[in-house]
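re: that chain from earlier
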Amino acid sequence: MKNKWLKLIILLLLAAVALSLAVGLGSVSIPLPEQFSILLGKFFGTSGNYTDTSATILTTIRMPRAFLAFLVGGGLAVAGVVTQSILQNPLASSYTLGVSSGAALGAAIMTVMEISIPILGVLLLPTGGFLGGLLAVLFVMALSRKIDHGVSSHTVVLIGMIVSMFTNAIITLLSLLFIKHEHQIISWTMGSFNGKRWYHVAILLGADLIAIILTMVRHRELDALSFGDEHAASLGVNVTKVKMRQLILASLLTGISVCFTGTIGFVDLIAPHIGRKLIGATHKWMIPVSFLIGGILMTLADLIARTILSPMELPVGAVTALIGAPFFMYIYFSRRNKNVG
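^ sequence. v structure.
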């Protein structure tokens, strides 16, 4: 137990380091002492050795971007933990199940149709993303059940990837048909944290907290599902109800993240595996640990995306794909060789 708490504390420190690097590095460097000086000045009105330009860059541009990247990575990681546990498949994630692309399609449709629901306000796109992601995963599960009555996890992942490609094709078509919204739609297909503000952070923080708390409350059910549906049912778990509830939560986490930042893959696949190696398969620990790992990975990926070819900025989805695609292949072939052996 002490060892697990130590690892959690180390991850928290690494998260702080990653966030500090993300807000400090760029075309204008802001060292850590200056970061503290600016924050003290903003919160307590103290004077410090910093310029107004540095203060604006830190608090208005870099901090909301870095914190949003961290929350997106953490939320996607928790969604990955949930989907892998439900399907008992290490290749399952919101990205491979088509949830991410479905959420992007939902947000794209809301945009090109110029739908306006005043009561939702800034929650309009998150709602569209959530509904798109949820409909995508429900369609994947229904089609998988139609094709394979046993609903093999491999079938679900395969159908999810097909649905993902199909929805991405629709998104591309929408970008061609609705030229006015082309830039916004294309940015979703590649992923970016550019131009994000504090209200984005506030919305995602609220969604992450709700979904993660509801997931943590049911961590024992996820533990049971990890060993198979029959084992979970023998322990009194209502398998169908639990799966549906957890898929809705995973869709919420993915949908809201995607509608703000675009489709970003593989973090929800990588983070749970690192967490499992680091802390074990108990979801009481896996969920917070994976959240921190996902947040750290996404924060560093975004830092690389905006600095490695500065002043040009890479899509953050391209950075995560460069890391995630080989990782996906490694998991697939190592799992297959293990089964053959």
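The chain has a mean pLDDT of 84.
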